[in-house]
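Need a sequence for this fold. Nothing fancy.
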C-alpha cells in the first residue's frame, strides 16, 4: 500500500545524505509514523533507528504494524521498549520507544553508540521529556556525534522556530490522505438536571454522550464510532451506560486507554468485524489509526498534568482541549470515507479555546528535570539547549 509520505522519500534520503537534520510536517494519515523509520533504516550506513513516541500504547502498536509490513516477527528487525515491557534483540534495526525510555538510554549511554538516527514523532504534543531528549540529542549531534541524524515529525503546523533550532535542517512537507469530515456542535450548551436537594447542575459527561449518540445511531451510522473522553472514570461510566441501552446492542463496545492490556488495546483498534464503539482517552488522537471510524463524538476534554502552586506538586485536572487537538480528533472520522464529528460544546466555546496546547515545560514542576540535567552535566539549566526555555 502506498502512503502520501512515500512521495517525499527522495527528499528525506537526500537530506540524510547531505548531513542535514529533518523537520517533517505531515498530518495524521500520511504514514509518517510507519514509513519514515524504514526509509531511514534502509538508507546507507549501519545502526539502530530509534523512534520516539509520546505514549506506550502507540509505541507497541506501531512496532507491531511495521513488523508485519516488513514481514518480520516483532522483536527481531522491528521492536519496542516501553516501561516494564520490551521486545527487541540483537537483530533490531528499528526500535519504538517512549520519551521516558530515551531519557534513560541517554543516561546509561550518553553518546548513543550504535544509534544511526533518532526520530521524534508527534512532537507537537510538546511533552517535557521529549523537549529535554531532543535538546540532548541535538547537543550530541552538534558536538560528539556529527553522524547522528535527527528527524522531528509533527502533525500540525505549530513548528515555528524548529527549523532554525535544528539547523542545518531541511523542512519537508507531506500531504495527508483524508476524506471530508462534517463538524457539528452541541447547541444550547450542557443540559441542566435536577440534583438531590433541589440544586440544578450540568449533566454528567457520559449522560451527554449517551443522549447525543442515541440520535446519531437513530439516523444511521455506517461504520465504527470513536468517543473521546478525559479519563478512565468517564470511560467506565460510558461503557456501563452503553451496556444498558437497547440501541447500542448491535455494536461491540471497547474501552481504550494507556493502562489497558496490550491484547485489549489491539482488539479495540483491529480493523473489520462487527461495528464498534470505541470509548477512548486522547491516546487515539494521533499516532494510532483505527480504520473504519465514520463518527467521532468528542467531549472536548482531556486530563492534563499541571503544577499546583498551592499544594506544591503536579496534579491531574480535566481541561478543555485546544482547537488543534479538536481538529486532530475530528480527522479520525475521515480516514476511509467521508465522516462526521459531533463536538459536545458550542461553536462560541470553540472560538474561545487556545489554538494549540500549552507545552508541558510551561505548566509542570521542573524539579526532577533540573536534577536529571544536573546529573547529565548541565548544573545550570540556562545553558541547556532548550527549544523553548522554561520561564524564570
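Here you go.
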Amino acid at each position: 500500500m502506498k502512503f502520501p509520505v512515500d512521495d517525499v522519500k527522495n527528499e528525506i534520503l537526500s537530506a540524510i545524505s547531505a548531513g542535514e537534520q529533518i523537520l517533517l510536517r505531515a498530518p495524521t494519515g500520511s504514514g509518517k509514523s510507519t514509513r519514515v523509520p524504514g526509509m531511514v533504516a534502509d538508507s546507507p550506513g549501519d545502526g539502530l533507528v530509534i523512534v520516539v513516541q509520546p505514549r506506550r500504547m502507540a509505541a507497541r502498536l506501531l512496532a507491531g504494524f511495521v513488523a508485519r509490513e516488513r514481514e518480520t516477527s516483532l522483536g527481531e528487525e522491528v521492536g519496542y521498549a516501553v516501561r516494564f515491557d520490551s521486545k527487541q534483540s540483537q537483530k533490531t534495526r528499528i526500535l519504538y520507544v517512549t520519551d521516558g525510555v530515551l531519557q534513560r538510554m541517554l543516561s546509561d549511554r550518553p553518546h548513543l553508540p550504535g544509534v544511526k538516527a533518532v526520530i521524534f514523532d508527534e512532537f507537537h504534543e510538546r511533552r517535557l521529556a521529549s523537549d529535554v531528549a531532543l535538546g540532548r540529542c541535538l547537543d550530541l549531534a552538534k558536538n560528539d556525534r556529527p553522524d547522528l541524524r535527527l528527524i522531528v515529525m509533527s502533525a500540525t503546523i505549530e513548528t515555528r522556530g524548529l527549523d532554525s533550532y535544528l539547523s542545518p535542517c531541511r523542512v519537508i512537507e507531506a500531504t495527508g490522505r483524508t476524506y471530508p469530515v462534517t463538524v457539528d456542535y452541541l447547541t444550547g450548551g450542557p443540559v441542566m438536571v435536577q440534583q438531590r436537594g433541589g440544586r440544578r447542575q450540568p449533566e454528567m459527561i457520559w449522560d451527554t454522550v449517551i443522549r447525543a449518540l442515541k440520535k446519531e445511531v437513530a439516523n444511521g451510522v455506517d461504520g465504527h464510532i470513536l468517543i473521546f473522553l478525559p479519563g478512565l472514570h468517564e470511560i467506565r461510566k460510558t461503557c456501563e451506560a452503553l451496556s444498558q441501552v437497547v440501541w447500542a446492542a448491535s455494536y461491540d463496545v471497547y474501552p481504550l486507554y494507556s493502562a489497558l492490556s496490550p491484547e485489549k488495546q489491539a482488539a479495540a483498534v483491529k480493523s473489520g468485524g462487527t461495528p464498534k464503539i470505541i470509548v477512548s482517552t486522547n491516546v487515539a488522537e494521533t499516532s494510532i489509526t483505527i480504520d473504519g471510524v465514520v463518527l467521532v463524538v468528542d467531549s472536548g476534554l482531556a486530563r492534563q498534568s499541571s503544577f499546583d502552586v498551592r499544594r506544591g506538586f503536579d496534579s491531574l485536572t480535566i481541561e478543555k482541549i485546544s482547537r488543534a487537538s479538536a481538529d486532530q480528533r475530528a480527522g479520525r472520522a475521515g480516514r476511509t470515507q467521508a465522516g462526521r464529528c459531533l463536538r459536545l460544546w458550542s461553536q462560541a466555546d470553540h472560538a474561545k479555546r487556545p489554538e494549540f496546547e500549552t507545552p508541558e515545560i510551561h505548566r509542570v514542576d521542573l524539579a526532577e528535570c533540573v536534577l536529571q540535567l544536573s546529573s547529565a552535566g548541565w548544573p545550570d539549566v540556562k545553558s541547556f539547549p532548550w527549544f523553548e526555555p522554561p520561564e524564570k
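For context: The CA atoms of residues 24 and 326 lie 21 Å apart.
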